[in-house]
Amino acid sequence: MDSAIQAIEFLARSEHRVAALEALSEEPRDRRDLRDATGASDPTIGRVIRDLEDRSWLAREGARYELTPLGAYVTDRFFELREGMRTGERLREVWRWLPREMEGFAVEHYEDAVVAYPGPNYPYAPVERVTHLLESTASIRGLGTTLYKSGNLDVFCRRVIEGMETEYVYSPPVLRAIVDWNPELTARALGCDNCTVFLHDALPDDSRCGLNVMDDCIGICGHDPETAQLEAVIDTRSPEAREWAEDVYARCRSEARQFDVGELAPDASRSPEGRLRVEPR
């Protein structure tokens, strides 16, 4: 086995070694401090100290122990790996909806992401997350390629009518489905002075996900590639993710055309076959 993998295994199979490095990365500690920080017994913490000293990661200065420069380097890299693996586990169930065409997307900006997707016993997590996000923001900008459920659209329209500052770049089929769902309510909402709507015929990742920029976070809404129905929500407060989302939105908005509210009238002559539809709940 590669020696680097062996070193990772050496740490990963001992929670006390990891806890000791975590404590020592904050400040030097004496033996009692390390025992308290790790929850290890005195004999165990003795073995941990010897193990770390044998690898030149730890040195004693008087009664206290501190990381060597090598130990600080190894600790930083190990914790970076741990955070990367945590992010991987967090996003594992929603990987298929992560952007691929939105330039600049980086997984590492989603270490603190909140992920909502239908579980085996409760399918409504994405719907409830969208409602929470809509109720928690005073403004929203987005790329509208995802069809929300009817309950989410009710909340969206109500929030717009209540004054939520709204600017959206829609895929035409998605906007048409929303208008068909409730022509009167959508005309009222999208006709508000605080709501500006654009259309774009080729939004990036339009078969995979949409994007929202809200007051305190940004959100990715994953959807079914055929029906555009909401499948998952991934949102984060990461400043780096926000900067990325702002750039993506600005580029798409600059390419979009203004939407005329007069186009909201439903067209009865169009065939319903192959048309996107809003689903209940």
UniProtKB/TrEMBL annotation:
Signal peptide: none
Domain HVO-A0261-like N-terminal, chain residue ranges per copy: 7-89
Pfam short name (any one): FilR1_middle
Domain Methanogenesis regulatory protein FilR1 middle positions: 123-254
Superkingdom of this protein's organism: Archaea
Record protein name field: Transcriptional regulator
Organism: Halosimplex litoreum
